[in-house]
Every structure is written in structure tokens, then in C-alpha cells.
């Protein structure tokens, strides 16, 4: 951030030239803060200026008047003068220059120093209008040339001035300030330089008489400046504490003076006015001090400086207006004390500049620190107010195999391409309204260049063209290359397009061919003439290169574009060589493609984002042989950002990606800011006499094609100057921002030289480059905090050479107090301790948020401000890491909560993040209340926050990476940039900061909660070779020949453990009772989660080595071993490594459906039999749901029914494919099974059994409901062929054909919670201890592949009323369902001795479950200790009762509904 904006906007200032020099402030930008009255040149270091105090709001700020230093600051004014606040012109004249052009001259009322502003406005579309002018003094006939001139004014032959008008919409405006009281009139002519037309008044000069001199002569009535200060403050308060530009501030100050002068005119004395102004809230003491002001002999400029020193020594506190007056008088007293000691004023002046005047403040500093960080008071808000939630709207873009319909010009192009002998060097198809222009460049075998051109314009077309030896130049073509009938002109030629007869092919197309033999020509500039009109390329000449050097010539293999808006990406890659010409071309092309992007949904916008991001990261060429005006760039930016703004308004579900696109594009210019990039570099060179060397090279680069690099170059120059001209600082700033010497040399207008300034240029360059930085950022850095705030708060700048005539109004409707909030942010934006800044940034974003969802003409300014605030959070957090080095857990958690809030404000579908935020807030409350479980609960919130970040990263990768890879390949982007594209997008946001903070807190929580670095799920000792994989799922069907320890980054919970694997280690968090965990224990495979990334990285670094794992219930020790230890370790286990499992094939018993009383081992599996066995044998408070079943053999019988003969035949063929190791057949088989039709007998029997058991029959609700139930039954049968089940049976050499599937039918209980119990602790093997896990909603999130942990607890069997929570839940999703039916798999391949078949097959509800994002902060199981104790004790009691019934350890599933326990299945624990 530049020092300038801190001075002008934000610091609490009592500034003087001396103080400014001491503090080395660079420049003063427009005032933005809501309670400042700052002058535009507060730090211009005018040598002899008197400084008057101004105590306004919470600021101590400065006013400079051009009076001699040392005098009392009073300014004389005529009581009868026009109020300064009234800006209506005192004189206005209009002239008609011709039929369409009108000229108006307005002369404004004189300001405080008798300056007149003459505004001349011309209604003209021309951008080359000049004012040829001079001034007239009394009794003189010749023009004199005033010293005060508009920016860009040139002296013409030492006899006149020529000043350029500034375009403002349809008008051109020029403002001239006249401060010479001897000037009586202005005379001028208007000159249109582009058309060489002079506009005169009746054949002579325009003559504008200024008001007579006597009306500008002040009288001797005066008002003390301190009273003017107070009155100005009161006016500011009355006007609602508005945001004033420096010019408006000046007007208000003079208006305050005029109000007081009027009171004098009405008979009041100065003392009357003083009493009135100081009576509100002042003590008698302060009144006396104020009164003493007029009696003191101390000059105000010295009092001002001493006041600043006092304020600085006091730690720059926020002073009320009354306290500021007190401080001013206290400073006067300090100086008076020195004067009373006999010190002269000159000696005081020397001492004060060295800070040697004693004051009570400086003595107090020895005892007390006054430097404290201020804080804002955040408003209390419901965090749910920031919820944004949209359904997924991704459009699957199908890649059509049908060829697209070609236009007639495209058909013509194809015809040429099919018949030419040479190679195509360049091809462009220009869209000209609803017509097209083709330009195709062929390199013939002879080496000649042939240009083919064609268009479908109906009227005759003439080509006005030239050739270029340097890109863009116009050079007349040699006569030898002119086609027949061409006409030679000066530096150009004209050639008519020819047409074919109506009966010929392509008769609608006009065509032209030009052959060039001279290979010195590199391109062809041209325009078209049709129907008497010149036709250009978006306002510029067409230009075609003969040999393109664009990166997309050597394309890489890009794949088929699956998962992308391929047609749009292809279009982008075709247009890239055109886009490389300049930012103007790129932004205009992007704007042209926006409609297609929006029509393609989020994939289309992803295409635009990827393209713009490659541009922003300099992966694409920014400028290539093309000279473009900065104003054209800013205009193109405006056009693109306006379209993005409109899309943001109309399509809320795309706001997040639209924000991301906008963050890669500058805001664009307003008030023709783009053109000022050209104009103002000339001002810098002229003001500071630095017209050669590096500054001239940069000037040429800026004129040729400005880019975001210029912001960095400007900052590098500022840093270089501030470092006392240390050239290494210049290069460091450039290189830190990606600009090398090679890049400087690569510009079309290269920068060869280093800066070389002298010390007498320092102050002027700091001022002017600081001002120039604002212009550059206004175009290139829409998300820069300073420029974003300025654009929203508004500013106006006139004079001093920078941003002249720019007037941006404040965005209307900003929240009350918002300017002060932004002011607070800018005051603290570079604080080392960032907590207060973060609070301010988030408060500002919260205040701004409602405006982002409502239509507003200035919406994009608000969006850019929000992006800038978001970005500043990230940089502040990174700066604040040091602050957290030895911070308490409470402070780290608070920082995390702030970053989670920031992230939630930045993304769509933020429900999960909001619940994470609520979780962190609860963890902080628990910490403050000294709750014993605070660390355990905080760990669950931390785990959930990580899952939320991973989910966001995955969604970004899914949306963006395919487009990044496809387009990157098409454009020849460096592979490293393609590979890390999505990763860098994530790093650029606050998600990366959040991840770093979570990593910092994790070990603290684990230590506090005694969690250790491991959770051991299956404690089996193992020896094996380390293999690192990304996902367990990706290798579940693999067979390892050696004993293998898999280190898998991702384990979801439903995978199969591959053959040969002896251990699985993961940082992922599958539930202890998930399917994969159960199978690991049953297969005697070591399975553990490692929470310490350093430990895991150490094991991963051992890939290929042989390790021994020795797990305990809470830790895993590991060590490297020798090969012979592997032999000894495995030989004893060899015989039992593969269990011997056989299946008995079950036969159809003649019934399609049976009730629970009929369940036998020949009819159903253990799941059904066990649930039937529990009925009537458990305590009354343990409930068992009603059940019926489709027994073994029903599937095979239905398949053999004549209804399903085609399905049966296809199944047999697919099983043959499967036997040939074609595993793709598994999915085909499942789909084939779903084609089965239900025999009527099955339907009737199932209906009878369900109704007889008191269960609802789906068909009673209509045929569609039965079809849903039938589809669920078929899905259960089809799960026999799911991948994990099939490979599991292969692993144990189980005959898959012998596997039979019964279907258990139960009514679904719409559960509040679901649980799984192991009546022997699976981690420790302790049979005296029950282990259970509980989730909110249905149990599928517990046993299936749903991320996050369940609530886990243990309970001693001899003390069932004392459950001990081991971990709180982190699962973000819960499943809920209304009253329905579930169809559960119940095969003969489950619960076999020595084989873990449980959970391999699917249970399918008739209705789809609703996924609900969970809010644990309101869940009674989490927040209500009594409720939690009751529920957990009941679950443990049910488990103990079932174990007692069976006499062995049990694996039990159940649910809780309205506090009641339901058991839905049990099986022996394995």
C-alpha cells in the first residue's frame, strides 16, 4: 500500500511541511474517509505555507494556505461575496459552432483566493479538439500566457496556448483556472486537429469577459482560523458526515468562513461567535484555552507542529473534537512556557523541528505505553444470514459427433484448404455484424506468400491495403504484387473484390487473392470500403500476420475435452493469436464470448476464467506488435466487467465463478482514466525533468501498450526512491512480482535502462509517481484495496496534473458508518498485530454483503471492493502467523473463526462452512467456560473444517482442471502451469490460510485431548514393503505379490483391501465401525489413521523399504527390518493367509415372500434370522421393527421366468465376458438385472405378507410407488455384482455362482440418530468395554463412504450409566427420509467363519434419502449433557442386553427416534 493514501485518507494528522519531510510521506490522494477534511496537496512541501489547525471528527488533519509562514492565519473576505459552497456559474454563454456542434462557456464564482474557474464545453464526438487561447490584461492588446494551465497544454510559437479537451460522454470539456487578478478576459479559437478545422466567432476570436477586478478585492474583515475549523466541522456533522473530495472539502471550508462572515455582518462580534461555537460540550477550562488563542503571541504554524508531536508521542489516539481543541491549546502552552523562559521564536522554531520542546505527554511516556491497537465493535449477527445455497447447475456439455453447420464463407474456406498445395500459415474469420470476412495466408511450395480473402457482403467491397515490414506499418505495395485493376495510392493501394456468376458455386461470396514474393514483408494492414462506409476491426485497422508465432501452433495432446465447454475452448484457442495483440483485443474477445459462456453454464464460465487466469499469470502473450491507446484498453475492460456485472445480477448461482473472473481483470477506466496513463507520464517527466533514460523507455512502453506490469514498475520506482536510490531495491520489487530483466527487454518498446535520479528529484517523484500509481491501479487493479475503496467512496480531482477532471461519485446507499469502517481498515492495514484489522475487514464485508445481492448500477465497484477486502484478509493472516507463534489455543481458534467467516462470505453453497463457524464459536465458548471437552469438541470442528476445504478443492478441480488442461494444451501453456492450475487458484484465496491455521492448531488439540498421533482401527502387527497410493479405491482390485503396507491418502470406508496387503495407513478418517474397518479386522490387516503429517511423511519417504508396524490401542511404532525377518514373519502365517470358505447353494423353496416367523437358514441369511430371534427377548424399551423377506432363490426364479428370457440370455453372455477377466462387464450386468419384470405371483405374495405383518403396501399409493419398490429390490439383487463384493469373493476363491441373495424388507424408521455397537472394543480387544459410534440421521453415513467421523464412546459393562465420549462428530452430511420401506441385502455369503462378507452388498430404500448439511451447534446430543448421557447409556444398555442374549460379542446396528432405541440388525462381532 502506498504511503500516500495513508496520509490523505487515514492517519490522524496534524501535519506540517517539516513533519512530512521527517516522516517521508510520498503523496496525498483524494480524501475518502467519512470524517476527514483533507487538502489535495497536504504534503506538497510548499516552502512557505502557514498551517492552521483543523480538529475534525476523529482526525487531526491539516489545511494549508498560501500565506507567509509565521503570520497569524486570518484571511480577509468581502462579506458581500458569493458563498464558496455555491458553485453555480456567475456567467454563462453559449455559441453555435455549426449545425451539430455547440460551445458553452461557464465562469464559476471566485474561490477563497479569488481564483476563477472557466469551464468550456463542446458537444462533439471528435477526440482531437484543442483550445487555442490566451488572456487579456487591461490596456494591452496582445495575448498573455497565464502560468496556471490545464494538463497537456502546449505553448504555440510563444504566442498562444493549446490545451486538449477531455472527452466526457458525448461532450469534450476543458477547465481553466485564472488566479491572476489583472487578467480581465480570455480569448480563444477552437481547433479540431484531426480534421484540421478552425471554429471562430464571426470570423474572429471568441472573447469572454471575466468579472470586474473590484468584485475580487477583499476587505479587511477577518475570522480566526480556529473558529472556521469548528464551523466547518459542524457543517460536516449537519450534512451527515459525508465523504468529501479535497475540492469539495475546500468549498465546505470556505462556506463555513462565509457563514461566520455573515454573522459578523449581522452585528455579532468574534467573541459572540466563539462563545456560541465552543459552548457545546466544552468545559470552562477549555473555553478559556480557546479564548487565549487570540491573545497568544505564538504563531499558529508552530502550535500546529507541536500539536502533531504531542499527538504522535501519545500513540496517535482517536481524539474527540473537544479533546483536539484541548490538545491544540496544550501545545500552545508548551511553547508559551518556552517563550516565558526567554527563548526566542527563532530558537523555538529550531528546537521544535528537532522535537526538543518538553511536554507532559513526553514525560508520561516514561511510565505508560500509549501505543495500543484500536478495535471496532462488531455487530451481533445471526451467522445464518450469510447463507447462500443453490442446487447444482452444472451443464453436461455433450460433444456432438455431427459436423457443425458451416456458413457460406466457412464452406468457401474449407474448399480452399482442401485444394491448396502449400501450408496454411495463418487464418482469421472476422465477424462483421451478421457478415463474415475470411483471411487465409498460404505459404506456397515456391516460397511465395498468397493471401486469400472472401466475404459475404452483398454490396461491392473494396480492399484498402498496404504491406508491413514492421508489424502495423503501412507501406505502399510494390506494383508487381498488385492484382489486376488495383489502384496505387500514397502508402496504400485499393483493390476490388470479385464475384462469381450466379450459376457458379459460392456465387454469394466475393473473393480476392494477392501473391507476395518479397519475404521481407511480415504482414498486411487493411480496411474495407463498402457502400461508401469504412469498415474497421472494432474501430482499429485489420492486420493479418503472414507467419504467426503464437503458442498454439505447436499444440499438445489435449484429449477430447470431456468435462469442458469444448466448443467454447476451441473458439478461444482459434482467437488467441488475435487476443495476443493487446489487452484491448483480449478483453473485447472475452466480452464477445460471454453470451456463449453463459449459455454453457458453469463450464462456459470456467472456460473464460481459465483463459483470463492464464493471461493474468503471464502464461499468454500480453502484447504483440500492436500499438493501442490505454483508453482503448480501459474501454474494453469496462465492456467486459459490465457484462460480468450483469451476469452477476441475473444468475446468482454463478456469482462465485464470476467473482473469480473479475479478480483476474482490472476494473477499467472511468472518466477516461485509461487515456490518463499516457498523459500523466508526460506530466511526471515534465515536472521532474526526467525525460530520458529509463523513464523515456517506460513512457514509450506505456504509450505503446500499458499492462499490469506497469503497476509493478511504478511500485519498484517508488521503493527505489524511498530506499535512498538503492538500485537493488528496484530489482527486488520487480523480481518479487515476476518481472525479470528478460521480461523488460521483451516488451515491444523494451526497457533497457535502470532508473537514475538525483536527490533534488526525490520529493517531486514520490509525489507524482504516487499519484500516477492511482491512475494505473484504476485501470489494471480493480481488486486493489486503495483503488477499490476510492471507486466506491468517490473522488474528484482537478489540477496538479493527475486524474484531472475525474469525478467519481460515491456509490449510493452505502450503510451508515461504512466510510469510517473503511477508514479504520486503511489505518491498520499494515499493522503487525492483525487481529483488529481482521475484525474490521470482516465487519466491512458483512456490511457490504446485502448490497452485493441487489441491483445497482455500480455493482461492479462493490464487487471489486469485496474482492479486495477478501484478499486483504489473506495477506493479513499470512502476516499474522508470527503473532500466533506462542499464542494460546483460544487466540488461534479465534483467528480460525475469522478466516472461516471470510471464506463463507466468498463462496456459494457455504452452508457447511457456516456450521463450521458455529462450531468454532461453540468451541471458544467451551474454552472460556473451562469445559473439560473443549479440545475434543474443537478437534471435531477442525476435522470438519478440513473436510470442507477438501470438498471445496475437489469441486474446483472438477470444474476447472479439465478446462485448464484442454485449453492449456491448445495454447501451448507450460505443463507445470497446467498441472497446478486449480491448486494455485486455491492458494490465492483464504482457504490456504485456513488450512495453515488448522495445521497449527491440530497438534495443540491432540495433546490437550490426549488423542496422540494415531487412531488404531485394527491393531495387528505387520511386516511389509511400503507402497504409497492416492486412493485405496484405485487399487482395491489389485493383487500384490509381496507383503505390502499401503499408505493411502484417501480411504472412504467402503473399499475392499487388496490381496497381499498387510497394513493400510492413512491420514483420512474412516469410522472405526465402517465396512472397510470391519473387513480389516476380520482379515487381520493392520489399519490405522495417522494425524501427524510429519510422521506420515516419514513413512511415505520409506517407500520401497521393508517396515515392521507394531500397533497398540493408541499408537503405532514402526522400524526398518531386514529381508530375513520378513521370511520368519510370514512363514508361520502362510498356511492361514487365505481362508478356506465354501458356500452351499440355496434353492427356491416355492414362496416369493415370507414373514419373520418363517425365517430359517434355508430361506434367509443370518441378518434376517438374527432380527427375528430378538423379538420378545429384549427389555421392553428396546424396539424391533417388523420384517418380511424375499427368500433365497427368488432372484433366480424371476430370472428364469418367460417374462425375462432376454435378460437371462444377456446375463449369461455378460458372465462369459466376466470369466475372460473383462471387469467392465460388472456394470453391464447390474444394469441388465434392473431390466427384470416382476411375475404377478411375486407381487401378490409380497403384498399379502407385508399387509399381514402390519406394514404399508407401496402399491396402495399407486402403481408408480410399487415400481419404485420393485426397482429397489432389483438393485439389492444387482449388488451381487458390485466391484468390491466380486473381488472380495475372488480373493477367498469363493464360487460367485453359489452366492444367493435374500431380501429383508423393513419399514424405515425416520431416525434422529443411528448407531453401531461392538460389544468388545475393537481397538483394544477389551471384552469388558463396549465401543459404539453414533451419527445424526440414517446409519448409511456411518457404515458407508461418507466423510467425517461419528460421535464415538466407550462404556464399561459393569457401569452402563457412565459412557465416556472419545470423539465428537465431524460428518458434514446426515441422511433423512420420510416414512418408507428399506430392502436390505441378506446373502448366504455374509457372517461366514473366517470371511468378512458383511457390508459388501447394498441395502436400498424405496425412496431417496435427503442429504442434510448438519448443524451440531444446535444438536441436543452435542449441547445437552443430560440428553447425551441418557441416549449413550441406553445404546450401551441395548448392546449389553443383546450380547447377553447371544452369549458372544455382537456387531449391532440400530437407530434412535424420539429418545427410543430401535435395533435393526445384529451379527456376531468378528
What does this structure look like?
The chain has 1470 residues and is of the alpha+beta class. The chain contains 45 helices and 49 strands. It is 39% helix and 19% strand. The strands form eleven sheets. A seven-stranded mixed sheet has the order 29-33-32-31-30-34-35. Strand 17 (435-443) and strand 18 (449-455) form a beta hairpin. It is globular, with a radius of gyration of 41 Å. It starts with a helix and ends with a strand.
Number of strands: 49
Question: Beta-sheet strand percentage?
Answer: 15-25%
Biggest sheet features:
7 strands, mixed
**What is the residue-averaged pLDDT?**
81
Strand ordering within the main sheet: 29-33-32-31-30-34-35
Specify Rg, calculated over alpha carbons: 41 Å
Derived structural class: alpha+beta
Q: Tell me, briefly, the overall form.
A: globular
Counting DSSP H or I runs of 4 or more residues, the number of helices is 45
Instruction: Give helix % range.
Output: 25-40%
Low-confidence region ranges: 1-87, 213-220, 280-295, 362-373, 393-401, 549-556, 1131-1138
What distance lies between the first and last C-alpha atoms, to the nearest angstrom?
Answer: 64 Å
